[in-house]
Design brief:
184 residues; mainly alpha; 7 helices; 0% strand
Length: 184
């Protein structure tokens, strides 16, 4: 029983705007039967009727007798006023704007920040090109001296081979202690 009543109330509420807003309309027999059976719907119908009757009797005030003259004076004042510079115009737009015009700029800036930030996170960094480490000048000089010493050793070995087995005198580097004189 309550389910059928709810369905009747829904159907009546759908029909209610047409009943109230259409001039000289009479409610259908189903709507009248429902209003007799459902006091809340009948009260809602009467409330809508009284509200719209009050709105129909209301007269909006007309414009002032000097409206046109005041409007013309305001237009002349705006035309005579000095033009705003573009900076002042931008300032006024920023102060009195709702912010909707800045949405594309904000979206673009956030997209750019995402691309730049994402590139750094993904390891896409083109500034760090791998290069072979370069040795300092001191290290280079020591390597050259080492190669020279190896060359001298090889030359000494070749000279020993050419002498046919004669022993060459060892060269002193200055780090060794002098040999003791032979004992007599």
């Amino acid at each position: 029983m309550t389910n059928s009543r709810n369905n009747d109330c829904k159907a009546f509420r759908e029909e209610l705007p047409d009943l109230v807003l259409t001039a000289n309309s009479r409610p259908s027999l189903a709507a009248i039967a429902h209003m007799r059976a459902c006091p809340p719907c009948a009260e809602e119908y009467l409330s809508f009727q009284s509200t719209f009757a009050a709105l129909d009797s209301w007269n909006a005030p007309g414009p002032s007798a000097y409206f046109d003259q005041k409007l013309a004076v305001r237009i002349r004042e705006e035309q005579a006023a000095p033009r705003m510079s573009w900076l002042e115009s931008l300032r006024m737009r920023l102060l009195f704007n709702t912010g909707r015009s800045f949405r594309p700029i904000v979206v673009g800036a956030l997209g750019l920040a995402l691309v730049v930030g994402g590139g750094g996170i993904a390891g896409i960094n083109y500034s760090n090109v791998s290069r072979a480490p370069q040795a300092s000048a001191t290290v280079n000089d020591l390597q050259i001296l080492d190669r020279n010493e190896q060359a001298f050793q090889q030359l000494d070995e070749l000279q020993q081979d050419d002498d046919g087995g004669t022993q060459a005198m060892p060269t002193s580097t200055g780090d060794e202690a002098p040999a003791a004189p032979p004992a007599s």
